[in-house]
Design goal:
- The protein is mainly α and about 200 residues long.
- Helix content is about 60%, strand content about 5%.
- The strands form two sheets. The protein has a two-stranded antiparallel sheet.
């Protein structure tokens, strides 16, 4: 994530990804569906886009919180995975030479948005606060997993919608306010305006 002239490497994790990965492995393992990496990733993208993203965990024990998520969502995820695996099976893309990479496009979009907005504020820009702001926003927006550059292009076009852009800016300021009230960093509050 870039803010002004500074580059920040954020550690972002959607805690739903391991739940979906487990469901995909379980469904594809004992079925007639193709289990190549491309088909697995396409199946995961379809399922992840139907579930809430959960990037922000305030629990002291993240492993326990992740386990609770698995318990809560695994059954529903298995059903969604069965449907998604059938969809991918009907139109597989494993013979395509197009490069691909499974990613939540919203991560890029949200990081870019905060990169533009934060220099205009006095928000704390320590790594913990930046991660919390981005995670908070991602959880509110929801996922947009894609596997191809074409999928990323469609996601980008969708993002350019004026109404959605205004909602997103409002959400960014909500995230800044939320993180300001619930700061988790141990260092003294860092407030500064970053000049470009």
């Amino acid at each position: 994530m870039k803010i002004g002239s500074k580059q920040f490497d954020l550690t972002l994790k959607n805690y739903m990804e391991p739940v979906v990965c487990k469901a995909v492995n379980r469904i594809l393992k004992d079925s007639h569906y193709c289990a190549c990496q491309r088909c697995q990733d396409d199946t995961m993208a379809l399922v992840l886009n139907q579930l809430p993203s959960i990037y922000y965990l305030r629990a002291a024990d993240e492993a326990a919180a992740a386990h609770e998520l698995e318990q809560e969502y695994l059954d529903a995820t298995l059903a969604l995975t069965q449907e998604a695996a059938e969809t991918v099976h009907q139109a597989p893309r494993h013979d395509s030479d197009e490069p691909y990479h499974l990613m939540n496009y919203e991560v890029t979009a949200v990081e870019l948005g905060f990169g533009e907005i934060l220099p205009l504020t006095k928000a704390c820009t320590c790594i913990q606060c930046l991660e919390d702001m981005v995670c908070y926003a991602l959880d509110q927006i929801g996922p947009k997993y894609v596997c191809t550059t074409k999928g990323a292009a469609y996601a980008r076009l969708d993002e350019l919608c004026v109404k959605r852009g205004a909602q997103r800016i409002s959400l960014f300021f909500q995230a800044i306010s939320y993180v300001d009230r619930h700061r988790r960093h141990s260092a003294p509050r860092i407030e500064h305006h970053i000049d470009n």
